[in-house]
Batch of 4 targets.
Target 1
Amino acid sequence: MEKLKFTKLSSLLLFIAIASMVVVSSCSDDPAPAQPIEVDFTVLNASITEAETLISTTEEGLAEGQYPAGSQAILQTAIDLAQAVADNTASTQAIVDNANIALQAAIDAYKASVIVPIDPANLSGHWQFNEGSGTTAADDSGNGLDGTFMTGHTEFGGGTAAWGADRYGNANSALVVDQGAWVEVPYNAAINPAKITISLWVNAAENRENNRFLGLRSWLGYKFQLQSADKPFFTGATTPEHSGPIFDKDTDPPLNLDEWYHLAVSFGDGEMVFYVDGTETARHEVLPIADMATVTEHNLAIGVGSARYADSDANYGEETHEDYHIIPAAWGGYFHGSIDELRIYKTVLSPTQVQSIYDVEKPN
């Protein structure tokens, strides 16, 4: 939405700039002066003052209540164009009115870009992976959703999780997984919300299909992964459970191996939005609008796509069987690489909120 607002704003500003030039050129060719028509600049001048005050009383930065870098320059461009119209004695009322519309759009877009505090109540879980030893990944959200290291499924190679270097180069400050090694977080409704935003850092060590680094019952709940092209890929199932639409989308760019990236995805309100290193990279429409599917008897898996696997797919479609819609490991996947700073929110974060997380957590 914010990108769309700035695109529309740019069009309006371009229109005003062109229109201003048209006014000047048309007047220079007029052989006889026309009867002056009084033009009212009052509203436009008030908008210019409002915009100038907004710039002088706010600041750019990374903190809550501040504005993203470059946002003041965009607003200043709108002010300059509006001032040019106000200073031009040849401006018509239509040009003045349109200049005011463009400036007000710039003001609204600037106000909307403010870094809004993320309500702590919307943080479902936060795993920093800073323990450095032991087999527990503590949840720092205050919700008590600590994770436990688990041995990988034999189908995947029976791997064991370890501690490794994080994106800053700090030893034993990130989760390292391979061959199905994973961390199990006991089920809680907080990690199975109606809307969701997932934020984490990943460093893939291998190009492979179904490089899944997070999942709650795989595609029957949700999963976040890299596909074989190393593009971030998210799947979300919607209500009702077992029969609601399942949406899966991806985003460019492909990620390089052995390099840390901040990834985020939100799902809700009819959209799936991806971010790479704090920047929105894709916005997909997912209709009809519905809540995410409610998952039962499945824990959250970090490092693989599901906490439970059936021995085979023989009873996958049998509604009365305990393996109904339980995927076999052969259909699953695991991540090979490092994971850090995993956050799950029970709401859709805005682009500026995602950007603020990245700005705070990124290496200098």
Note: Residues 71 and 110 are 7 Å apart (CA to CA).
Target 2
Amino acid sequence: MNLRKIFGLNLQRLRRERRLSQEQLAHLAGCARAYLSGAEAGRRNATLDILEALATVLEVEPADLLKDPGTRPETR
């Protein structure tokens, strides 16, 4: 799975968990709703500024938006 698709899946999951519409999240993060739609579909790249803004609104670390949802945490 490519990074854009992973980002999109994580973005959509976190947005829905917080019960935000694309319009609401876009407003809070300072980007366009069309950008979020494309990002969730894996068609748009994120700048570091947008990644940070989305993570802040969603109350996660920026890296959480880029983690492969199929990856299991490492055990020691």
Note: The two ends are 26 Å apart (CA to CA).
Target 3
Amino acid sequence: MLFHLLCYFCISHFRIAFEFKQLLIMYNIFTKVILWAFTSLAFITNLAAQVTTVPQFPSENDEVEIIFDATQGNQGLLNYTGTVYAHTGVLTDSSTAPSNWRYVKTNWGQNTSATQLERLGPNLYKLVITGNIRVYYGVPDNEQILKMAFVFRSENKEGDKYREGKTEAGGDIFVDVYPAGLFVRFDVPASNALLVAPAEQIAIEASSNLADSLFLYQNNNLIFKTAGKTLNTNVFAESTGKHHLWVKAKQGESEVIDSIYYFVLNHTPIAELPAGIKDGINYINDSTVTLSLYAPYKDNAFIIGDFNHWEYDTSGFMQRTPDQTHFWKTITHLTPGKEYIFQYLIDGSIRIGDPYAEKVSDPWNDKFIPEETYPGLLPYPVEKTQGIATVLQTNQSDYSWQIADFDRPQKKDLVIYELLVRDFIAKHDYTTLIDTLGYLKRLGINAIELMPVNEFEGNLSWGYNPNYYFAPDKYYGPKDDLKRFIDACHAQGIAVIIDMVLNHSF
């Protein structure tokens, strides 16, 4: 098996080799920072540079030109010279998630004239949504169309896969479909959240479909107005902290607004790490945690999450230690027992979860975990961030171990059954696995070696591509179910060995 580090111990109190913490993080933190770096300052962008439309505010009754710029986004089709096709569908009011495309034009990899893009020039393509959006996709009248969804791809595979044009983070591209009425939006900046320096000049462009006048406000103060449907100006960042920009469009007595914000970063506060605080999530009491992140020589770090609306805010602005190795912050007023999803946002571009977290929130794989396997799993905050996030929860109930003094067998006496949970039982959960212990005991074994169960890439894996060492993978069930399985094994005289792989982290 590639590389096995057989950690021979029985995990009496869920000690799954977590004594390796300092070694693992020193070894992997730099890899994680690189792997999970994203260059956008915030997740929600208007994608104007990657995809533009004619008309600018398309409605379901419009024939629409989709202009795709392959130099933007993930650049998966950069300098591609073949024919480009769109894999496309829509999100409607019947969609259950952003991944729940409806009325998809073709199967993946199918090339049709209706989904073929016209080359306008190097790295620039056009797709025409002919007739109108509803007709093109075949959406029935009883569903409201919210967005068009796209992945652009090469005509043929290169090797074993297509070249794909997606967002910068590798996600699907979405284009809003507007109902009738007045609308306004910021076109520049492309992000709805900016991290800027004091007095920095910020270019502002906004547009509306029907406005006769536009008004720009900073912190509720009118700073610019113009007649017509477009607004172009510059503003200068104010004092340290968060500031809001609002654009208002008026048409007669009707008006609508759009908003963005910026955070002025003057300097990172310096403070010693409080005594007793370790890297990761430190639970202080039922409503307070202190988070500590090892990120040497980075300039700044924010905590973003459910507790601060996923925004730059002073409540999440982390202090840096004098030796420039750690960032830390105490979060208060949490609801006891409530789960909060969060990330660290480092230097305005790097989004990572807490490397020591015991639970992750995965935008790609959690949706395939059945409710019966993991009841009450929190949905991923799709429209607020990107990449893997992590979960904290104060006031967790301690597992009550039934076997506290397990006498593990000597190494020379081990009879080991190596077990991959998802292959051994169809339901792939610890609860069902407990029911099989009698069968395994009758085989004469006295130890079960679980192939890696710490959080790994995907769901259907041997586990040798871990991404969070201290979080049990949710595809097999909650962490307390793993503890119950270990407890049940000990009751049968069976030791549990964890197969761990540290040399090729995702």
Note: The domain at 184-264 is CATH 2.60.40.10 (Immunoglobulin-like).
Target 4
Amino acid sequence: MVLMARTTKTITFSLPPEMAERVNEVAAQQGSSRSEFLRTAVVRYIEEHEWRQLLQYGEQKAREEGIGPEDVARLVEEYRSETNPART
């Protein structure tokens, strides 16, 4: 008999009863399991968190370089022209 390694890790966490019921309801409405619903929610949360971190980094670097919102379109166009001369 060949045993396959698990591709997931089981974790346990607590939710208030009302929230747990809401998770069950929404998962059922979407036709997904509770696990799939929560996996999707966690992935979205992590992606949003990483996006916010990237935005904060960009804002910090822009402040350090003295770049304001009014400079962004011009800088993007300059970069595109430098990397793709056919655009000019």
Note: The mean pLDDT is 92.
